[in-house]
Amino acid sequence: MTGAGPDVWLGIDLGTQGVRAVAVTSDGRLLGTGSSPLTSHRRGERHEQDPGQWWRAVCSAVGQTCATGADPRRIRAVAVDATSGTLTLTDRHGRCVVPGLMYDDGRATVEAEQVNALGEQQWTKAGYRRMQRSWGLPKLRWLLDRYPNALTDGWRLAHQNDVINRRLVGHEVPTDTSNALKSGADAAAVAWPGHVFAALGIPTGILPGLVVPGTVIGEVCAGAAAECGLVPGIPVVAGMTDGCAAQLGSGATAVGSWNSVLGTTLVLKGVTEDLLHDPNGVVYSHRSPSGHWLPGGASSTGAGLVAREFAGSALDRLTDEAAPLLPTGLLRYPLVSPGERFPFVAPEAVAFSSREPAGRAEDFAALMQGVAYLERLCFDYLDLLGAPTDGAVVLTGGATRNPVWNQLRADVLRRPLSLPRRAQPALGMAVLAASACGAPGSLDGAAAAMVRPDRVLEPRSAHRSAHDEGYARLLDLLVQRGWLPETVSAHARERTAP
Q1: Measured between alpha carbons, how far is 266 from 269 in angstroms, rounded to an integer?
Q2: Cross-strand bridge partners of residue 236
Q3: What whole-number distance in Å separates Cα of residue 445 and Cα of residue 261?
Q4: Global model pTM greater than 0.90
């Protein structure tokens, strides 16, 4: 490395619709950004991507990042995140031999039942009790049933970011416990539960090695450097899932803090000292690079309905028309897709409204309010499990562009909410790279130095009782349909009391 200049950290985020890269200094200055689109193939429960495009998109995004101001000679380390539960199989040379099965591919229904029957004790020990059909291990079993030659031909499991890490370093790499969690990895022991895989007929030889996020797993090789515009020898750091990366990018790394991400769906992730155990299998925990735990879950409610139901509308104008109607007596349970995952598990759940809206403005108001009420229920459920929920709450995601919705969420949650200036998963990976390879030397320190706050929203008390009443009514409707357990509803009501 030559010349004077700041240390730079490169973060790469493999999302569903595209790859994003950022280059950030140790004090949080953004030097360069880049992005490149990805395409998917959906049909019913099937959702696949061509893994070949992952690397091409990474090279494009990183090339743009360097071209827009980031000197590749100053990049000290790189880390990559990916969508949780997305995987493929590779041959002995690291080439992908099957399509990438995406995070929400739901074809492994039978295999999930088998995985849960044979691994129940292990999954209970891990804190989440049951795997869902879209998780990695059921999908791995599904693939092996359809490609029986995989076991004899030396094929190996590879998560989405494993594919990129191998291309970056030019040799076989271990996977991180964050991306491998849904594939059955024991994050506490940093090991694969061999007895479960033996019972499932999956030889351990098909599994990559395991490391904790933040571990240096190699250096950028000459071939990858030439393709991406990087410099050979840059350390490559084991990353995390996109949800965990978004949490690091929000700055919510201290015990008791939470990151609420409202995009297509609602994702809530926090930090606890100890592993959280959920008897209902709703919440699962990743292992933090700091040694703490990152519990959370993803709801099927979210802002995805805005584009679907209000396409073509002038959203700023619609928001202005909806704002005076809040709180509204129209209750909506706004599911983006059928089936709920968090704050309760109900595969049969469907969206509903308490009555017909008086107009589009009231319908939009009820949509925003319904998501806020579900967000409150998520926190009530986490409190029921014993998680610390009194720390800072940071809002991120595309919906934070709507100031009325932000304030509504603060009012409904009855607590201050903060918004960082530039939060995204790619920034979280830059934070992880900095914590692993340079000063400040710790995850909390790197996050504090690199994630810059924007503003804090204080809750308003004017409509507190109306929101409490509306929230209680929604709880009743969810219980009546048999989706929300009575114990959860009762605890939520207790927390509603002054």
Answers
A1: 10
A2: 78, 218
A3: 22
A4: no
Using CA atoms, how far residue 341 sits from 109, 351, 422, 479, in Å, is: 15, 13, 28, 15
**pLDDT of 323-341, one tens digit each?**
999 999 999 999 998 899 8
Closest Cα partner for 247 from 298, 186, 190, 173? 298
Dist. CA 127–CA 277, nearest whole Å: 4
pLDDT given at position 441: 62
Burial class for 494, CB neighbours closer than 10 Å (0-12, 13-18, 19+): exposed
**Which of 305-314 are b and which e, b meaning 16 or more Cβ less than 10 Å from the residue's Cβ?**
bbeeeeeeee
CB-CB contact of 425 with 13 (8 Å): yes
pLDDT for 83-141, tens place per residue?
Answer: 999 999 999 999 999 999 999 899 999 999 999 999 999 999 998 888 989 999 999 99
Q: Which helix (H) or strand (E) holds 250?
A: helix 242-250
Nearest by Cα to 14 from 429, 443, 437, 450: 429
| Structure tokens belonging to residue 314 | 């002038």
